[in-house]
Specification:
- It is a single chain.
- The chain is built from 3 helices and no strands.
- By secondary structure, the chain is mainly alpha-helical.
- It folds into 2 domains: about 70 residues; about 30 residues.
- Helix 1 runs antiparallel to helix 2.
- The longest helix has about 45 residues.
């Protein structure tokens, strides 16, 4: 019984991870397809000021952060970090004898 539960949990975790990866690639695809349109609109409407750079850089930073999160590259906001924070909160709650503050 325990083994089936563990396998089910692992399956759903893997399924969740695949959805996150797919979401990142969809985000990246939209970025790659939309930015040429943004650049073209900039050159057609106001070629004297190249504002497309800010759009590409801002959105690019979002893409980078999304990729870091999906592929668990930063040292924070991953499963290990979550477990550590949960332990810290529980220990704090136990030592103070009250609920979350």
């Amino acid at each position: 019984m325990e083994n089936n539960f563990t396998e089910t949990v692992r399956y759903y975790d893997a399924q969740k991870k695949v959805k996150e990866i797919r979401g990142f690639y969809e985000h990246l695809t939209v970025y790659v397809l939309c930015n040429p349109i943004v650049i073209a609109v900039n050159y057609m409407t106001s070629p004297e000021y190249l504002w497309w750079i800010w759009s590409v850089m801002g959105w690019g930073m979002a893409i980078i952060l999304h990729g870091l999160k999906v592929f668990s590259l930063p040292p924070f906001f991953n499963k290990k970090w979550e477990q550590k924070k949960i332990q810290e909160i529980l220990e704090k709650e136990n030592s103070h004898g009250n609920k979350f503050e």
